[in-house]
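Hi U.,

Before I forget, here's the chain from the pilot set. I'm dumping it here mostly so it's searchable later in email.
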Amino acid sequence: MHLQTKYPFAFVGSLVVACVLANAAEAGFLSRLLTRSVAVGAGSAIARAAPGGSSSSTKTYDETTLKLSQLESCVARAKTLDEQSARVDAEKARMDRLAEDVRSGKDSVQAQRLKVSRTDSKAVANFNRIVDEQNAAVQTYNAELRQAKAGADAFNGSVQSYNQDCAQHYYYVDDMSKVKTKLGLN
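Structure:
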């Protein structure tokens, strides 16, 4: 008697987090925004000195210069993105571990498949139970992967919005000082 064996599902893939113009391995959004950098980069704005070296009513704000309220909003958003970035990185690491567990389980099933006696009903039943467990693990992984990708997509959308609204804009140094004081970031 030749018994039917089951085969495991394939898993969808691994989580890839591609942050638009942002790299979580570099300094965080907030630290890049708070530094008085003259280099333009993701998450940074370019500091300007106020005319005459002080805060003066002659400051001009155009579409490339953040007003005080916009700067405050950008600093708050940068802080939020830093927190979210840490969570996205942790989720990616968790999903990578789960993917490795699924791959390891698949390899184990393949090795056991070669050894199972197809004429031994108990051995086949045991193998089929192992395959069912592996398939359940794959289904769980795929469901969690879809959620993780949705979270990464939402984060990337937030980064893109932040970059559009805040990064590569100018701000006045004294405006940043006011924002830092107000938000307790000194």
